[in-house]
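User: Can you help me understand a structure? I only have the sequence.
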Amino acid sequence: MKRICVFCGSRPGSRPEYRAAAEFLGTTLAERGIELVYGGGNVGLMGVVADACLAAGGRVVGVIPRALLDWEVGHEGLTRLEVVDSMHTRKARMAELADGFIALPGGLGTFEELFEILTWAQLGFHAKPVGLLDTAGYYLPLLQMIERGVAEGFMKAENRGLLLAEDNLFALLRAMGQYHPPTVSKRIREEKHL
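Assistant: Let's start by predicting it. Here is the structure, written out as tokens:
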């Protein structure tokens, strides 16, 4: 993988582990020669991961909608900052640039980005690995919800394999490097119940 897109919070969160994970991810990507693609902000975990990657000599591409340029404080020290017209364009451009995706802790925007890229994978729009760095157990309820979706018949069991979840960055990067998308029929057939 030459580029990894990172989804993460525009706030730092309440635990020091979140900041540490973002710093470690940014530094590790730089050390491995992997370019960071992210939302272009200079606040919260977004700013932390970008600053860490840059400080370690890495390359960072930010993609930010014009409407959020001031709100998220567009990062001025990046290798490249692309200003786009909308959130939809932002997500599509980040997906186009990336060879894989990692979600750090974050809020609604992070959840939305993660689930949209997973949905695109489910629909066969891409075959790139999607990873979840489960720092301090932050994503445990989300992982349980995915299991519930399978148990309740709203998801195929094979679709669990679309999301690689680890609490260790090296294990996650290894899993992403070995990723082969599950073979899942995209066709939905309504089951008739008597």
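Now, to help you interpret it: The mean pLDDT is 93. Strands lie at 3-7, 35-38, 60-65, 80-84, 100-103, 130-133, 163-166. Let me know which part you'd like to focus on.
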